[in-house]
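Board notes (copied after class):
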Amino acid sequence: MKYNIQKMEGDADSVRYALVQKGEKTLFVVGLNPSTANEDTPDRTMNRVMEFAEHNKYDGFVMLNLYPQRSTEPTELHMDVNEEYFQKNLKIIEEYISQEKSPTVLFCYGNNISLRPYLRESAEKIKQICERYTSRIVCVAKTKYNIPKHPLYVKIGDFIDY
């Protein structure tokens, strides 16, 4: 898949709400938090997400996250939730997902969801949003705790139901 981001929502230095690659068939992706990917350059996770998308016959994606704070290390995420970021993130996620007829949503945030209580809360709220618009919530694999695995640590393959 060619990396040609057409829309990035957020302040590139501190938060990113959405990273969008338009296509005929769009995959919605929910990761933990944004790292370094932007409209010019993918990071390792985005490269992997694009490989999974392409393997599963998607030519576009909307990259979303449980929490929009940019950080290369999940351990550096805010200790306490920034409520403004949190609420805006949920609103933007619903705006994107509600626009698609029968969207497929890939959850792929990994065990780091346990680092902050607000990440679990966000995952639950996003799942509720998704369930209003689709019955197709998938992952690349699950951890022994039934958490969707991060795509960097899974061999490219078909999505499974979450």
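Comment from the instructor: The first strand starts at residue 7 and ends at 9. The chain is about 30% helix and 20% strand.
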